[in-house]
Amino acid sequence: VKSSPSNMYALLFPVIPRHYYLNEFNPLSAKNMSPLGNGLFLFGEYRHLRSLSLSRSFYSYKGSAYIEAVEVLIVPDDETELNAFNRGLTDVYFSSVPEWTRHRSVKEVRFAEYPSFDFDFIGFNFNNDFFSDINNRIAIASAVDWDSFVRFIYLEHASRTYSAVNPHSWFYNPNAKKIFTAQNGVFRDEDEPPLTIIVNAENNERIKIAEALKQGMNAVGLAAVVDVLEFDFFTERFLSGGFDLVIGGVALDAVPVFSFIYGEENLFFYTGSDADQLIGSINASVNENTFRRAFNDLQLHMAEQLPLIPLTYKKLAVLTDARIGGLHSPSADNVFWGIEYWFIK
What we know:
By secondary structure, the protein is α+β, with helices and mostly antiparallel strands. It is built from nine helices and twelve strands. The chain has helices at 18-21, 78-86, 97-102, 134-141, 146-154, 204-219, 231-240, 275-283, 288-305; strands at 41-47, 51-56, 69-73, 92-95, 109-124, 158-160, 195-200, 224-229, 245-251, 308-321, 324-325, 343-344. The strands form three sheets. Strands 4, 5, 6, 7, 8, 9 and 10 form a seven-stranded mixed β-sheet that branches. It has a three-stranded antiparallel β-sheet with strand order 1-2-3, with no helix packed on it. The radius of gyration is 24 Å and the shape is globular.
């Protein structure tokens, strides 16, 4: 087994009754289609690629839910899911509050937000020698007051982070950051083309960040332009290195693996880092103290070396029809956490 900080999470698995599932290898067998457990709802009828019926269980270790039955509709794509929610065919939808607002729906909804593992950042293309000088990276990082700007752009629907680690993680260190002061005297030759910032056209928040970065860079003497690209073209330019700076994002795990920053196949062509040893210490950790200490060292290293500019971890939301009450505390691990408190008005 390859050493990984997420190996400990592999020990989080359900325990199922051996006597019931022994030798049940066919997923469509009678027993597998009537799963045995102690959850809040009982498995009912499954209609292939159409729907699933659940009924309230009175045998759950959590007690019983208020809602008597749940009908799960299986839809082919995100657009169908959104249309079904708008038309009242379904009562639950998963999105973020800013994204839902952009739909301009008149539907009255309730929502409960939760921190996600979706990390947004500003990345450098280290194939451009200009970024090999950390002072130039610092000049760009300090060109905008990101604390204020993130609050303005996301309106509390994202959490500011000072490293690539989720600020809601138990091993996040808010003090593992470096305060950069605005840099003066960072210039490029006048005959060099402006630095190109790429961003995908489908994300309004990132476009605003790109424009703010361009203005901040121009103010400190670094000419920059923004290329707003449709997602397919954005992805192609990003992966092929056709950019100088990128406003991007990545979905990480509860215990993040930073191969997109470090390692032979990182996305930014970053080399010469001694982070491999720090990541090795994380992978070799055998208890919480050494694990936290190793992640702290890596966060300090990120702050000192600035391989990218960390911005936010987005918040996502469970949205329900207004007739649903009792929304509790969803999480990235379980968006239906607290569903036993839901009720229909």
